[in-house]
Amino acid sequence: MLISLLVPCYNEEESLPILYEALCKVMQECSQYNFELILVNDGSKDKTISVMRDLASKDSRIRYISFSRNFGKEAAMYAGLSAAKGDWVGLLDADMQDPPSLLPQMFEMLSADECDVVATRRVSRKGEPPIRSFFARRFYRLINRFTDVEIVDGARDFRVMTRPVVDAILSLSERQRFSKGIFAWVGFRTKWLEYENVERVAGETKWSFWKLFLYAIEGIVSFTTAPLRIATLTGFILSFASFCYLLYYFIYAVISQIWKERPGYPSLLSFVLFIGGMILLALGIIGEYLAKTYLEIKQRPLYVIAEDNKKDKDKEQDEK
Length: 320
Ligand code: UDP
Ligand code: MG
Prior knowledge:
The chain has eleven helices and eight strands. By secondary structure, the chain is an alpha/beta fold. It binds uridine-5'-diphosphate and magnesium ion.
């Protein structure tokens, strides 16, 4: 049986050798399986690609794919999954935050045939800025409330999947990918393994607060159209309220016989501004979905490959 281990890498020249060592240990420990290592270089700006070439020249189990520029982790994962030939595919980060030492246990769980996916979640967010944890928690609450799929708080991309799961993920051809949602959407019997947060061994995280914020919006827009309904609902409530107010004012004016002009600039202005704000919000929400549709419709490839050490071999095999 072949297991593919897939690692997306962006500026990981320091972590990659450490990870490779750790993976070698795992592969030795689980010698009953055959392994292939798929390293995806997501347009790194450091020497990650030379590290990959080096490793590949020494170890024939390694396949590396190098993008022409940075396309993001989602694209890197998709490229790796498409290239993987294994009966099982393991997915992990390059920075040792997804401890390779958990892999043997994950393989064991999968071989017991009681599940199709062994996924992991962090039970603590130790070493993470509190503000980031706070917003992350709010995000999970929000997304689970508004979408049909359940996204587990602290769920990592770190997981081992059987072939049917991988094929299901690959069959979702959308360009704007939100892996956590996609994993949840495809379903299958999933077992969760919990572990404490580990800090990355070297290099630094590629996630700024702003990037995370955009990622959160991406997640929501990808998996639910509820915000569109919120816009409709708000519009409805507002117009109903203003109608009531108008009615009340009309009756009041008739009863009290005051037709004379009243100074009301501040209230008028705030009301107009409020409505204006609501309209802009609604337009923004519509814009998000429209932009998504636009990007999907262009049908651009998810990534461009500049270098692939086993592509030609693949072709030869296919021709045979
Ligand atoms: N990564 C990638 N492309 C990117 C950003 C990140 O392939 O544009 C990889 C990165 O090399 C690492 C994994 O995705 O293996 C997770 O990234 P990171 O450790 O920066 O994220 P964090 O653990 O802080 O969420
Ligand atoms: Mg990390």
